[in-house]
Amino acid sequence: MFNVAVLKMKDIIKFLIILAVLVLLISLLPKYISSKKEKQNENNLGKDIAEKISQIKGKSLTGILEQTIPAMSSVEEKEEETKKEDETLSEKILKTEMSLIGSLDENNKPENAENQVVNEEETQENTPNEQSKTIAQEENEQIAKTGLPTEVVTNNPIAESFNVQYGNVKIKNQTSYSLTEDILKPDITIENKNIILFHTHSCESYTSSDLYPYTPTGNFRTTDLNFTVTRVGTELETGLKNYGLSVMHDTSYHDYPSYNGSYTNSLKTVENILQSYKADIIIDLHRDAIGSREDYAPTVKIGDDYAAQLMFVIGTNAGGLYHPNWNQNLKFAVMLQQKAEEMYPGLFKPLMLTTSRYNQHTGKFASIIEVGATGNTLEQCLTSMKYLARVLDEILKN
């Protein structure tokens, strides 16, 4: 009886030990499985890294980034497309500007213009240097030729009046000064060749034309400076710069909103410019009012071009205002007009010497130049600037 009880107790203890072992194994099994998976993942990651290194070995940095960051390729493609669009737009703008220049100067086309037309396909094949040469050739077409037949062709002219003549320069002297040889002889030396252009009467305009139609906002006046003497000044500025001359062109309104005080306004402008831009040649570009006659358009034909005639107005101290350098201004005008009469006879009307000062005390070689009159068209005045620029360049060469 006792032995049987002992035997059963041993079996129970054995069973409990086995059960405990099983419980322990069961509890450790998940950790073991998890550890195996992590090890497997590490092995797989190592294989993937090795495979990636093998794939990208020998590729460029850009290629690696494109493979690693797919969005980069897309961004670069968009940037390239944008660049191409900008280049295309620039080409269109350039072609449009060239086309506009061609249309504005159709009347000024040289005899061999047909031979200077560039085939579009050839232009696309040109190198950048060759394209630059083509543009330069088109700019050179705007340079005035010399040795052309010249004649005054004004319809409904106003009789010229002058009371002094120096060589080929006619002068209408409205002062009491006696214009002697010493006063008129252009024995000046132009050292500072900087040029200031401005407009006391910025809104002076011309007869509307098919090429330049506009709606006047006054009697031959408009606040749209694209159709006024200010636009003529821009043409002269461009012409002078084509010859390599230094030009400061001010396009401020001086006669708007009020016409009164125009000369006071423009004097402030010139004095401000002179503080930072030193110049002796100062030109106030105007349009001749002369009663605002619609039928008066002083015109000179130069070759095949029809150009508005020009006129110097030179002030003095005869009206009592301080103006010690008026004689220098006069000598400069005589020098320029002499050269103009040699190159393009009739481009200038008789020079007018007045008792007023017209702000010309601001420079050693200051002047007013009247470009055409109310009956002239803007295109005739723009044409004049091509020839005036050539004459200015000639006297400033030395």
Describe the structure concisely.
By secondary structure, this protein is of the alpha/beta class. The chain is built from ten helices and eleven strands. Helix 2 crosses helix 3.
Question: Could you walk me through the main structural features you see in this protein, from its secondary elements to its overall organization?
Answer:
This protein is an alpha/beta fold. The protein folds into three domains: 2-57; 106-141, no CATH class; 150-396, Aminopeptidase (3-Layer(aba) Sandwich), CATH 3.40.630.40. Helix content is 47%, strand content 13%. The chain has an eight-stranded mixed β-sheet with strand order 2-3-10-9-11-6-4-5, sandwiched between helices. Helix 9 (326-343) links the parallel strand 9 (310-314) and strand 10 (351-353). Helix 2 crosses helix 3 (70-104). The N and C termini lie far apart (148 Å).
Helical fraction equals 40-55%
Enter the CATH topology name of the largest domain: Aminopeptidase
- The CATH superfamily of the largest domain turns out to be Zn-dependent exopeptidases
The CATH architecture of the largest domain comes to 3-Layer(aba) Sandwich
Q: Quick check: average pLDDT?
A: 79
- Total DSSP E strands: 11
Assembly context of the chains: single chain
Task: Label this structure with key terms.
3 domains; alpha/beta; disordered N terminus; 398 residues; 3-stranded antiparallel sheet; Aminopeptidase
